[in-house]
Amino acid sequence: MTASVFVGTSLDGFIARKDGSFDFLPDDPEPHGFEEFLASVDALVMGRNTFETVMGFDAWPYGEKRVVALSSRPLELSRAKGKVEQMAGEPAEIVAKLEASGARHLYVDGGITVQRFLRAGLIQRLIVTRVPVLIGQGIPLFGALPHDIRLRHLATRAYATGLVQSEYEVVA
Amino acid sequence: MRRVRYSVAMSLDGYIAGPNGEYDWIVMDPEIDFGALMGSFDAMLMGRKTYEAAQKMGGGPASRSMSVHVLSRTLRQEDCKGVTVSDDAKGTLAKLKAAKGKDIWLFGGGGLFRSLLELGLVDTVEVAVIPVVLGGGIPFLPAPAERAKLKLAKHRVYAKTGTVALEYDVARRAAR
Q1: What would the 3-class secondary structure string for chain B be?
Q2: Which CATH architecture does the domain made up of A2-170 adopt?
Q3: Structural domain contains residue B126
Q4: What is the ipTM for the molecules in this complex?
Q5: pLDDT tens readout for residues A2-32
Q6: Domain containing B48: what range?
Q7: Which pTM value belongs to this model?
């Protein structure tokens, strides 16, 4: 199993403003590999906050892709029209369940969920896209961790609007 | 015109030092030409905490070819040999920029960067992103800071260590 994170951040390391909004991200970002990345995963795993944010979008951004929303409380799934299943538990249990159901590549998303999976040593790949802006405060990229995580740089690409995307693997 | 350049090493998650000021995670890529980088500056700016940390480590990276300016409201000039102490960031910068010379290295820390950014006095931001996640520490830009637009000027990968060097111009705002 491989679990990846694909995330946009300001240069100063924030994935969203304090209120969860992303108005510093370009309105209409040039293609930077998200569709290709999404096509490479078998399932998305996201926390309740991210799920509720995405439910507020006009259009569902994940097509027919299997989406797992993590929450120990009931979630309102009716609007998600069968694309979303709910799970609860420790990251290792979630990964084991998804692996048992045939998933080989997971996309882990959402600040707290990414942090929990990183802490559990269950993330293998990080794809970070830096937006050329400083926002000064917000929700940090990964949050607090009990120890440093060393990475191996795999590739970096720059885009015309100044996005710089770097791909890393976690050094075990 | 001399430029003020904030040139730092940063973890992937946006810290310039660990929670206790550690910098042992900063790997020096052998292909980075530090001589050329240092040679592009002849003045260095730092805040009190950075100055005090540099003193503890035996003086920091300054050399005879670089004048050092410490911005602090509490330090006294007579206690700080070999550096110029001032509590007036704007005045210090105006004087330095009016004089002829090489670029000015905004050495840190983040607090001084924030102050100078708010005054519109930072020209470029040069970040060497080190492939490590620290999970906490001294932020690149401490909150709360104003939003600033940047323009990507250059990027380069140093493959041996996986360091990604990013260079941005700070977008000019209307004068206030």
Answers
A1: CCCEEEEEEEECCCEEECCCCCCCCCCCCCCCCHHHHHHCEEEEEEEHHHHHHHHHCCCCCCCCCCEEEEECCCCCHHHCCCCEEECCHHHHHHHHHHCCCCEEEEEECHHHHHHHHHCCCCCEEEEEEECEECCCCEECCCCCCCCEEEEEEEEEEECCCCEEEEEEEECCCCCC
A2: 3-Layer(aba) Sandwich (3.40)
A3: yes
A4: 0.90
A5: 999 999 999 999 998 888 888 888 777 789 9
A6: 4-20+28-170
A7: 0.91
